[in-house]
Specification:
By secondary structure, the chain is an alpha+beta fold. The chain contains 28 helices and 20 strands. Strand 7 (425-429) and strand 8 (435-439) form a beta hairpin. The termini are far apart.
Length: 754
């Protein structure tokens, strides 16, 4: 495509452009227009000169062609501000030049909206600008043309696609963040308050944490603060008012402290560049909420950054600062020896500094400071060979991809992803010394899943710093965690309530869905076989395979699961089987025992817990599944024997039903009193004196009665106990399980069937 004729300045006019300062916010939510939204558009030659200022070998032709193509494609389109739409992609490209990205990224910034908002196609972009630019444009293009079910689903699908694209090329995320930053700077032009809040919420929950995760502190701070201004304008204004008052009361304080710190370090022979800056209103607000303190009680409203020449100088400067000023206990953090997952490195300490002020001091090298400001973009310089797969080194991206694999739908994926992107973190260690970063409040189960999914699935206990802890223990910074596993263990439904990482929750939910599906399949098979037997024919796999084609299910297992959960009627399947067999009226089988049928008002013993059995019929509870009052049950009838009561989810019910003469659906008579049945529990208890007594006491306090005890696997720290506990129903059983899980002597407890 021909390039527009433009006047070009001399090459000598090219100068390096520093990162732009955060855009000023409106005085009120609908007040004065930010200067950034009304400044003149960045002209074509100005954009090219910006790029060539840091990359003399930039593809000038590519940039010119992308600029002209985007301008013509967007044509007369207008934004909500009334500006030509083309201003937006040019501003996005300008933001990217501040981070010194390569020519392909700048061109993508210019073209990122042409597929979504104009008649341009991806094939056209690839033909005109090459496969690399086309791949980047596709990565940041929204899925607005898909027939999505809801705004929430659209948001989740968009984020899913962004994740997949940025896992292959981290530049996709950098371009998307620049796009979102300019949209947030002009958010106040949107008239619909609900739409503004939705965009701000999405920015706060997804895009600001993403910027933080790749170490782009300035980008994260501006995105979060702009969202904060929309979501909580009154709170933000109150913080700004206090900051203005603080500046009036302590005029020149920052400069005085900087001079005193510089003099202290200079006397020790350490040259340092020192700056002071206020924390953002959002970070101040969050700290006030988290610590439940007032504005005046915060110690680090102003942070002082000390930039020195080497890592050795960092620790030397720390020693000088601690020697000259008293430090606040518990407020020292070493992110140099233990970097954050996003690559952030620095020493943090809080001291009673000059003028007896509580201040935070951050000590780092110039290289560390660049990484802090630019994050992944600091490593993505044009001169380092364009590492297009840079994103693969980020463990958290792999964790998000793992969540994507194990979630059932887009909304669940988005929920678990938000969990995964918590900003507050703790750093724990494996026994081999590997660092695992987790959200604050994470448990040993979260740690186990962070190590490996299989470790999490088979976790039965944990040892922290050499001592046994409960699986709900909240891990702390510096904990060394050892996970105890058992090949027979499996995730528990209770785990879902105590984990905080998206990966752990997604994996647990997947297992629980799989287990529930297996139960439904077994229940559906049992119901169909009983109905087929009553109709006089055998129901085999081959017959089901022929029948499933006539029903709205893809596989036999799908059909059986639908029957088991009640979404497909048993009669519908039986009629399909009869049609397949050509049986218009199958003969009823002759049987010595007639299937029992419920009566509308059965005469029964007033103390009988089972409804549906005629008076005088003897029954017994199955020892394989130990049914508890309140669970769905079925009775199996054999000649000369009592009716055996099984839970419908009993793993051995199929074999037992094959050996029975007949079966009947039963229910519990909830009016019966003094009915107690035994449930079997598998308890992993600490191997220490008094543990068994503590378990017995806990059960007794909840009204349970232990009627049988057996011991299973034994380890140096844990041993397995199988208990048959009598309870009066499911509610009491849940109380017993909850009390055992809360006991300090118990690592885990589950109900078992066998």
């Amino acid at each position: 495509m021909a390039t527009e004729a433009v006047s070009q300045p001399s090459p000598a006019a090219a100068v390096a452009v520093p990162p732009p300062a955060p855009a000023p916010l409106p005085a009120t939510r609908r007040g004065a227009v930010p200067a950034s939204s009304r400044r003149p558009i960045l002209r074509q030659y100005e954009l090219v000169e910006r790029v060539k200022a840091y990359d003399p070998n930039a593809d000038e032709d590519l940039l010119n062609r992308a600029y002209v193509f985007a301008m013509k494609a967007h044509g007369s389109q207008l934004r909500a501000s009334g500006d030509p739409y083309f201003h937006h992609p040019v501003e996005v490209a300008g933001i990217l030049t501040a981070y010194k990205l390569d020519s392909a990224s700048i061109a993508t910034g210019l073209l990122h909206d042409v597929i979504e908002d104009t008649g341009a196609t991806l094939a056209e972009i690839e033909r005109l600008f090459g496969p690399q630019v086309a791949r980047l444009v596709d990565g940041v293009t929204k899925l607005t043309r898909l027939p999505l079910q809801s705004a929430q689903t659209a948001q989740a699908e968009n984020f899913r696609k962004l994740l997949l694209a940025m896992s292959d090329d981290i530049r996709v995320l950098l371009i998307k963040l620049a796009d979102r930053l300019h949209n947030m700077r002009t958010l106040h032009f949107i008239d619909d308050p609900a739409r503004r809040r939705r965009i701000a919420s999405e920015t706060m929950e997804i895009y600001a944490p993403l910027a933080e995760r790749i170490g782009m502190a300035e980008m994260q701070a501006e995105l979060a603060d702009l969202a904060f201004a929309e979501l909580m304008p009154d709170a933000r204004e109150s913080i700004l008012h206090r900051l203005r008052q603080l500046r009036r009361d302590d005029d020149g304080l920052v400069e005085r402290i900087v001079e005193q710190l510089r003099g202290t370090l200079a006397r020790a022979g350490i040259a340092a560049e020192i700056t002071g800056r206020e924390k953002t209103p959002l970070s101040i607000w969050r700290k006030m909420q988290r610590k439940n303190v007032s504005f005046e009680q915060l110690a680090d409203i102003i942070a002082f950054r000390v930039v020195v020449g080497s890592v050795a100088d960092c620790y030397a400067a720390l020693g000088v600062v601690h020697g000259a000023y008293a430090m606040m206990p518990g407020r020292f953090k070493d992110f140099i020896s233990t970097p954050k997952p996003n690559g952030y490195r620095s020493l943090h300490t809080t001291i009673f500094g000059p003028e007896r002020r509580k201040i935070e001091v951050q000590i780092r090298t110039a290289e560390m400071d660049e990484v802090c400001e630019f994050g992944v973009a600091a490593h993505w310089a044009y001169k380092q060979g364009a590492p297009s797969h840079e994103g693969r080194q980020y463990r958290w991206i792999r964790e998000l991809l793992d969540i994507l694999e194990h979630t059932a739908g887009p909304e669940e994926f988005l929920e678990n992803t938000k969990l995964e992107m918590f900003q507050d973190q703790v750093f724990c260690f494996t026994p081999k010394g590997d660092i695992i970063a987790l959200p604050r409040g994470a448990t040993p189960i979260d740690f186990a899943y962070a190590v490996h999914s299989e470790v999490g699935d088979h976790c039965v206990g944990a040892r922290v710093d050499g001592r046994m802890v409960q699986l709900r223990y909240a891990l702390q910074n510096g904990d060394q965690v050892e996970i105890i596993t058992s090949k027979n263990a499996a995730p528990s439904a209770a785990w879902e309530r105590i984990v905080v990482t998206g990966k752990a929750r997604a994996r647990i939910r997947r297992y629980l869905r799989s287990r529930k599906r297996e139960e439904f399949i077994q229940q559906g098979r049992d119901q169909l076989q009983r109905a087929a037997k009553a109709e006089g024919f055998q129901l085999g796999e081959r017959l089901l395979e022929r029948v499933v084609a006539a029903l709205p299910h893809r596989t036999v297992d799908d059909l059986l699961a639908a029957v088991g959960e009640g979404s497909t009627a048993v009669r519908l399947v039986i009629e399909a089987c009869r049609a397949e067999l050509g049986h218009d009226e199958p003969e009823r089988p002759s049987a010595k025992i007639v299937p029992l049928r419920r009566r509308s008002e059965p005469a029964r013993d007033a103390l009988s817990p089972i409804a549906g059995l005629p008076p005088g019929i003897a029954f017994q509870f199955a020892g394989c599944c130990h049914p508890v009052r309140g669970e769905p049950i079925v009775g199996l009838i054999r000649t000369g024997r009592p009716v055996t009561i099984h839970a419908t989810h009993c793993p051995t019910l199929q074999r037992a039903a094959d050996a029975a003469d007949s079966s009947v659906d039963l229910s519990w008579d909830m009016r019966a009193t003094e009915v107690r049945t035994a449930a079997r529990l598998a308890v992993m208890a600490l191997n220490k004196p008094g543990a068994l007594g503590a378990v017995s006491t806990v059960i007794g306090k909840q009204g349970g009665n232990i009627v049988d005890v057996r011991f299973g696997h034994r380890a140096p720290d844990l041993y397995e106990i199988f208990l048959d506990v009598e309870v009066d129903g499911l509610d009491q059983l849940q109380r017993v399980l909850g009390a055992l899980r809360a006991s300090a002597s118990v690592s885990s407890v589950e109900r078992v069937y066998a």
